[in-house]
Amino acid sequence: MESGSQVVKMSHLIDQIVQQTYLQLQKLGELLQHKEDPERKGRLIKFLSESRTRTIKLIVAVKWALNNNGNEDNNHSNHFSKGNHESNGNFIIKRSWEILELIEKQDSYFKETADALYYVHENLQNAKAPIYDVPTSIDVLTTGSYQRLPTSIEDVIPSDSITQQEVSNATDRLNQLIHIRLFSSYVPSQFTSIKIANGRATCCVAREFTVQITLKGELESDPWIIAGLKIHVASDEHIAEDSPSFNFKNFSYQLNFAKTIAQQRMIDSEKPLEDLFHVLHSFCISLQIHVLYVQASLLSRTKPSLGVSSIDLNNEKISIRYWASSTLESSLLEIYSEDSKIKIDHSPTIINPLNNQEVLWYIQDPDRLNVEMVLHQVIKSNIHMKLFRAYEALKINAQSKDTFDFYSRSQIFLNSEYLNTFLKVGLTENSSLCIRIDARTGLFIVKDEPPTFGDDFLHILEDRINLNVLEMRIIVAASLKQKIVEYYERAAYLARLVPSKKLPKKNNIIGQSFSDHTIYIQFESPYQDYYLAVDQTENFYPKLFLLKTKQNELYSGFIDIERVQPILEKGKIDNPIELKPFSISMCYSILKKIISQKE
Questions:
Q1: Nearest to 547 by CA among 513, 497, 573, 578
Q2: Residues contacting residue 342 through CB under 8 Å, at least 6 positions apart
Q3: Cβ atoms of 28 and 43 closer than 8 Å
Q4: What is the pLDDT of residue 590?
Q5: Quick check: 583 pLDDT over 70?
Q6: DSSP-derived secondary structure letter, 367
């Protein structure tokens, strides 16, 4: 037998069919031993039918092979000629292929015809002319109505089963049921107002949310149903336009999720309204944390004057770090939720100097959130505390010999704008020392009024007070001495004399020493060997000395002090210190008098 390019021997095919039939019969004999008689008969009939089908197929194959034996006829001594083989076998194959091609061609024609009919049907829907309803048009145009509807349509149209009066009665009844249910239920005190109207109870928590609830039926077991919810949490309308809002799709999903959770809690709760409040309040707390964090992130980029160095959000806690400088420990502001409230902590603790208690801050208006205002209040309180600490450091220490009263000469000027808040310490009658806090760094800034101090001297004062505010008295004392020194220097220049803070001396008078704030004023010829030394006591009392000097014999340009003569030492000075005009002529007269006495 030949199939395409493969050749199968007829004997092999017959052998395979016989073996398959034998094996099936043997297997059937083993299976039918334990079967009932009807089932055995059915199995035998099925086996005989299948065997008969295979045998018929084998007979057809044998006949086909005989008609298309090809080269096999030569091996079996075929008596047919080569011409008969071509006329029988090849003719049958050729005719079979022609029949198959014709069938496939007709099948393609059927498919093309079906597709064409479908497209014709689709196109005819758009191409056909509409059927105009002429009678209906005449009725509408002439009478203004249409009277040709069948009367049986009345049986299908539903009538108005609920009248307006029935709706009003049902609403009133539902209002009564809500009144009774609210009266017998636990209502959280956080609900600032509850109004009943239109079959709904509107419960409001001021500045947070408004929820509308209703009842599903008249039974006591019927649960509350949430009919509406509005969230009032929002940013302050006066802050920047890029402040956070809830106009996004994810927020509507979160809102619906919160409503679903609240509804589920109310169904199985003994206090449904309390659970409703807790779920919605917790949702509003999370929204507040989100809004405040976004605002704080914007502040770090848009308001560098606040000195914010870092902002973190961890476990619903906002950490705002500010005043981070190399000489000062940074301050930390934390905003978080605890016990269903927004709390604000500060590290280090800020103490109110007026009542000596810790300063506390709260988020008062959830519908007008403004973290910048909170940060302003914190910085303002921190500035007040630091200035009051500096102010308290001016008090006289009982263990110190320094008894000058700087405290009564000082005053703190408080202002709503912390840039205008400062500590003013009176130095002399017409001068003072102003101490402020830099809002960006939290460091002390020292300025004198009127400004006469050099920048280097002011930086020294600032560095010292920033390192230790308890040295405030030392700083103010140094400033006052500097003012006195500057005053005597100006007086000397006005008298056309040259003052100096150091003398080129090679010896000291035993038992006599001068402080670092002493001014030496040299007299003019013929008294060039005399100096007027202006010194100060610890309590800023002026002391005048007349110095008699001579040129040093070994070192050129250096002098030796021969004699020190006290001239003037004032007593107690009234507050404030009044620096009176310095009379150089008086010093000359004193000098002449002393010289005449020596002679």
A1: 513
A2: 285, 288, 289, 335, 336, 362, 363, 366
A3: yes
A4: 67
A5: no
A6: G
Q: What is the pLDDT of residue 86?
A: 47
Cα–Cα distance for residue pair 31/266, rounded to 1 Å: 67
Which pLDDT value is given to residue 217? 82
CA distance 417 to 267: 53
The more confident residue out of 510 and 485 is 485
User: What whole-number percentage of the chain has pLDDT above 90?
Assistant: 18
CA–CA gap between residue 260 and residue 546 (Å, rounded): 95
Q: How many residues are there in the chain?
A: 599
298-350 tens-digit pLDDT: 887 878 777 788 888 888 899 998 887 656 677 899 998 888 788 999 988 89
Dihedral Cα 289, 291, 294, 295, nearest 10 deg: -110
Whether pTM > 0.70 for this model: the answer is no
- Alpha-carbon distance of 223 to 593, in angstroms, equals 111
**Contact (CB, 8 A) for 272 and 266:** yes
Position 87 scores a pLDDT of 52
What pLDDT score was predicted for residue 88? 53
pLDDT of residue 550: 85
Please check whether residue 421 is in contact with residue 387, taking contact to mean a CB–CB distance below 8 angstroms.
yes
Neighbours of 196 (CB within 10 A): 15
DSSP 3-state of 462: helix
C-alpha closest to that of 291 among 340, 232, 348, 345:
232
3-state secondary structure of 545: strand
Q: What is the DSSP string of 264-320?
A: HHHHT-SSHHHHHHHHHHHHHHHHHHHHHHHHHHHHHHH-GGG-EEEEEEETTEEEE
Which range has the worst mean pLDDT, 24-33, 225-234, 437-446, 538-547?
Answer: 538-547
**Helix and strand numbers, DSSP H then E, in the chain:** 13, 22
Query: pLDDT-derived band of residue 5, with 50, 70 and 90 as boundaries?
Result: very low
Paired sense of beta strands 341-347 and 351-352, if any: unpaired
Each residue's pLDDT tens digit, 165-190: 888 888 999 999 999 999 988 999 99
Q: Show the tokens assigned to 508.
A: 């000291």
Question: Which of left, alpha, beta for 356 (phi over 0: left; psi -120 to 50: alpha)?
Answer: left
Q: Answer yes or no: are the C-beta atoms of 559 and 551 closer than 8 Å.
A: yes
What distance in Å separates the CA atoms of residue 193 and residue 202, rounded to the nearest whole number? 8
State the Cα–Cα distance between residues 43 and 176, nearest whole angstrom: 79
Following DSSP, what letter does each residue of 140-168 receive, concatenated?
HHHHSS---S-GGGGGTSPP--S-HHHHH
**Is 503:548 a contact under the CB 8 Å cutoff?**
no
